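Supplementary Methods. Inverse-folding protocol.

Structures were first reduced to a discrete structure-token string of length 498. This string, shown here, constituted the complete conditioning input.
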């Protein structure tokens, strides 16, 4: 057997700047985990000891081989413009230098992608428990981008098909929107959906910890009158905006089925670890939610319990589409107390308002079983007007629950410039929702454009398109809010030479 002496020398070569090199502030603490993950603190509240404890919390999230490709976790003192945390991937490379007397090439360049997590508001969120939910979400990005898909090739992924995301137009539309619309549409980003799924299916016990004791506005007022020593601000914060727990923030997208309500999804997540999931989809009764307006400023929500089990936790949540924010309404265990008041509560000469019964809100009740399984009701969307009305939950898949678009002229021939007015409206309860984005394109072809120039609309119900140049023109429209989209084409409009 021919033997040759082979000497291998590995030379590390970082091709991109390390995170934080362009930042004005300097790290206040650093800690290197045994797995090679570097924890970096720019916040005075996060010491080496806390960084070590944060690593312990990170490892409570279910993980596999992808952990070796997490490069760093950084904590910043203040808020970010868009999120509580961010995740990015960076390219790293090293040179493998081999001295083998000409038997092998002298060196070879190896590349890989490493993940970086950034957490914000470190001065206020000063413990691993306070960071747990955000950390689990960001690690969910790391897990899903490593195993499922990358940022460009997700439409053909098994995850996309399992989640049945093709039936939601906004998932595809989000990919063509600019970063300026991120705050309004982030919940429809497939990467965000997958990261939220990870939290519920694989997140740490702390990230999924249940929140109990949340009172509706009627309970808050009664509690305040009975406990005058408790600051009102604390009562408001603890109830309407409690900690984001497993039940008070089960998923960032209120319109999708929960991960555990999706057959095969839990098994798919765990297949990359060769493990069996603790919980999987099962056929259970979904809670039913409805409401009645009991006064001009009072709405009573009621729900049908899923069973007689006194240990099932029910959580009523509201989503504000204009502020892109969640509010907890009430948590209660068991089937007996199955109602919650929204709006204004009165007791004697005192009255409190939760400011929820304004504009358009979306409501959903979640049932959490003793073993952690969750089921949910269909979304109940309410456009509060102050007028007496009672409506049942809307079937969002019905033909009536859609955005319709009309044009003042659908086609014409003219020798003079023309102005075409486009109008849109909802045919149900959501007859005038917040229109978050519109894209109008004028081309000389009836083919739908591949790229849209998304803009914030100046008018929520109409827009005017001026056609002045001679030629044959088509008007393509694409409208969207946080629920539905509509797209189509009007024309041809023929402007003749004068």
């Amino acid at each position: 057997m021919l033997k040759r002496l082979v000497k291998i020398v590995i030379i590390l070569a970082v091709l991109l700047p390390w995170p934080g090199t362009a930042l004005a502030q300097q790290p206040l603490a650093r800690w290197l985990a045994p797995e090679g993950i570097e924890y970096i603190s720019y916040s005075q509240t996060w010491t080496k000891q806390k960084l070590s404890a944060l690593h312990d919390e990170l490892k409570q999230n279910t993980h596999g081989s992808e952990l070796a490709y997490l490069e760093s976790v950084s904590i910043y003192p203040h808020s970010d413009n868009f999120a509580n945390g961010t995740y990015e991937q960076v390219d790293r490379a090293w040179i493998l230098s081999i001295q083998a007397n000409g038997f092998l090439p002298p060196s070879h360049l190896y590349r890989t992608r490493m993940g970086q997590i950034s957490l914000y508001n470190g001065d206020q969120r000063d413990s691993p428990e306070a960071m747990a939910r955000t950390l689990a979400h960001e690690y969910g990005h790391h897990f899903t981008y490593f195993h499922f898909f990358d940022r460009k090739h997700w439409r053909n992924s098994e995850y996309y098909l399992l989640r049945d995301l093709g039936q939601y137009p906004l998932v595809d539309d989000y990919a063509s929107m600019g970063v300026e619309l991120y705050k309004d549409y982030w919940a429809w980003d497939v990467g965000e959906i997958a990261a939220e799924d990870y939290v519920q299916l694989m997140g740490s016990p702390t990230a999924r910890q249940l929140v109990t004791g949340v009172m509706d506005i009627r309970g808050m007022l009664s509690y305040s009158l009975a406990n005058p020593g408790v600051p009102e601000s604390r009562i408001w914060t603890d109830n309407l905006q409690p900690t984001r727990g497993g039940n008070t923030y089960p998923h960032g997208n209120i319109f999708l089925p929960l991960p555990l309500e999706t057959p095969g999804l839990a098994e798919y997540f765990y297949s990359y670890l060769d493990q069996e999931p603790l919980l999987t989809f099962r056929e259970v009764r979904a809670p039913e939610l409805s409401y009645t307006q009991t006064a001009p400023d009072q709405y009573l929500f009621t729900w049908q319990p899923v069973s007689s089990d006194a240990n099932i936790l029910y959580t009523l949540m509201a989503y504000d589409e204009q502020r892109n924010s969640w509010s907890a309404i009430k948590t209660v265990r068991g089937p007996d107390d199955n109602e919650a008041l929204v709006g204004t509560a009165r007791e004697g000469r005192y009255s409190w308002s939760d400011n929820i019964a304004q504009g358009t809100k979306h409501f959903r009740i979640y049932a959490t079983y003793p073993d952690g399984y969750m089921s949910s009701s269909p979304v109940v969307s309410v456009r509060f007007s102050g007028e007496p009305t009672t409506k049942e939950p809307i079937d969002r898949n019905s033909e009536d629950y859609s955005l319709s678009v009309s044009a003042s002229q659908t086609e014409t021939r003219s020798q003079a410039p023309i102005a075409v007015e486009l109008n849109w409206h909802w045919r149900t309860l959501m007859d005038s929702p917040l229109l978050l984005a519109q894209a109008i394109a004028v081309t000389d072809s009836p083919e739908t454009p591949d790229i849209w120039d998304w803009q914030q609309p100046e008018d929520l119900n109409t827009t005017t398109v001026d056609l002045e140049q001679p030629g044959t023109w088509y008007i393509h429209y694409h409208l969207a809010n946080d629920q539905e989209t509509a797209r189509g084409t009007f024309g041809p409009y023929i402007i003749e030479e004068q």
